[in-house]
Design a protein that fits this description.
Blueprint: H1 2-6, H2 14-18, E1 27-31, H3 36-45, E2 49-55, H4 59-63, E3 71-75, H5 84-92, E4 95-97, H6 103-107, H7 109-114, H8 125-129, H9 132-141, E5 149-150, E6 160-164, E7 174-176, H10 179-191, E8 201-205, E9 210-219, E10 224-237, H11 248-251, E11 258-265, H12 273-290, E12 297-305, E13 311-317, H13 332-338, H14 344-358, H15 361-364
Parallel strand pairs: 1-2, 1-4, 2-3
Antiparallel strand pairs: 5-8, 6-7, 6-8, 9-10, 9-12, 10-11, 12-13
The chain binds adenosine monophosphate (AMP).
The site of adenosine monophosphate (AMP) has 17 residues, from β6, β8, β10, β12 and β13.
Length: 366
């Protein structure tokens, strides 16, 4: 039932997409943003050609890393990547697209999921990721503890965080305690055109504790889930409010906001790791059941750890997250799995390489 809701009919399969490819000459392609440098750096270490799809104004910056890039495909708008010219060029280069955290946000969901170029990862997850409510439903189905979700028809008995769709780094989120404030603020966002209607917002219990974000990698070729790292997001101004004496910000009427400005490395208390691995395994299993063939490669569970060491997951990303940029030379965890510097970008390329060697390429691309 849920599977039917989530399924999307692409009208093509990856075998067909690979038909005209020279698999010995694959190029790892990504949008020049987010974690692109890590991705092309990792691809080069594993011996692949690389392609950066770049907006014209970003070229001067990326040109500084020409040694990591074999080809640039220049676009005026991100959505141009679905134009016939760009698709033809990407095919000629035998490109595999590695979607990162900005991919859907930049190119739009229609282009993101329908582009006729092989994607490293699970295409059908994009649509779920673009919808806050479906996301929470998937986590809940996996049996992963999540915060309570409220509707405006019921009593709001706890502090809540109101979230908007899309990966805009926490922009326009707000915290509230009562329904009137939520309705008033959402009306303003509708007036400004930020959202079309109240249904686009997710009203979620605000969980007290500390934030922690886990970087997983599911390998279909090894049938293994790895925890490759963890981070904390540095968010303005919620993370700055603690610099003020208690209650001062209430006096000046400041309202916490959640705009991500960077990432801070984190190593976890080792006794938390079995539970974190278990959550990741639950996620892999459920995506296999609900969205076959299931998640491929990097994903991230975003959580609050409470004072009782409960882990509550409030969000996931089905792609490489920006927090992995901390570990271009590997993380304390990836080193333990691989005994060599292994970033997530490199791990992606290693997976593609292993898949080619084992004749399993169609198991890691969609
Ligand atoms: P998200 O867009 O879901 O990643 O949320 C952006 C930020 O809001 C997170 O990094 C957290 O700091 C905060 N946040 C999101 N959901 C919750 C929650 N349920 N409880 C507490 N803080 C949250």
């Amino acid at each position: 039932m849920l599977r039917k809701r989530w399924a999307c009919d692409m009208g093509f399969n990856v075998g067909t997409l690979l038909k005209d490819y020279d698999v010995g000459k694959l190029s790892i392609a990504t949008l020049a943003s987010h974690s692109a440098l890590q991705i092309v750096h990792g691809a080069k270490l594993e011996g692949f050609k690389t392609t950066l799809i770049a907006k014209r104004d970003r070229l001067p910056f990326y040109r500084g890393f020409n040694h990591l890039v074999d080809e640039y495909v220049v676009v005026d708008e991100w959505s141009d990547i679905c134009s016939q010219d760009v698709v033809r060029k990407l095919k000629e280069l035998n490109s595999v697209i590695v979607p990162h955290g900005s991919y859907v946000e930049y190119v739009g969901i229609e282009c993101a999921e329908n582009i006729p170029i092989p994607i490293f990862g699970l295409r059908t997850l994009f649509k779920v990721e673009a919808n806050q409510k479906l996301k929470m439903e998937l986590l809940s189905k996996a049996g992963i503890p999540i915060p309570k979700t409220y509707s405006l028809d019921e009593a709001i008995d706890k502090l809540v965080i109101v979230k908007l769709a899309g990966a805009k780094g926490g922009k326009d989120y707000f915290i509230a305690k009562d329904k009137e404030v939520i309705t008033y603020k959402l009306s303003k966002l509708v007036e400004q055109g930020t959202i079309r209607n109240f249904n686009e917002a997710l009203i979620q219990e605000y969980v007290l504790g500390v934030t922690a974000y886990y970087h997983y990698f599911y390998s279909p070729t090894l049938n293994r889930l790895e925890i490759l790292g963890a981070d904390i997001r540095y968010e303005s101004d919620i993370d700055g409010l603690k610099r003020l004496p208690p209650n001062t910000y209430l006096e000046v009427g400041a309202e916490p906001t959640f705009t991500v400005v960077g990432n801070i490395p984190l190593v976890l208390r080792e006794s938390l790791l079995p539970k974190i691995l278990d959550y990741g395994e639950k996620f892999v299993k459920t995506t296999k059941e609900e969205l076959p063939p299931g998640v491929i490669g990097p994903f991230c569970l975003e959580s609050i750890i409470t004072k009782d060491a409960e882990i509550i997951v409030f969000e996931f990303s089905g792609r490489i997250v920006a927090g992995t940029n901390l570990y271009i030379n590997g993380s304390p965890y990836s080193y333990l799995y691989w005994n060599e510097p292994m970033s997530v970008g490199r791990r992606i390329a290693r997976e593609i390489k292993t898949a080619i060697d084992k004749g399993m390429l169609e198991k890691v691309l969609t």
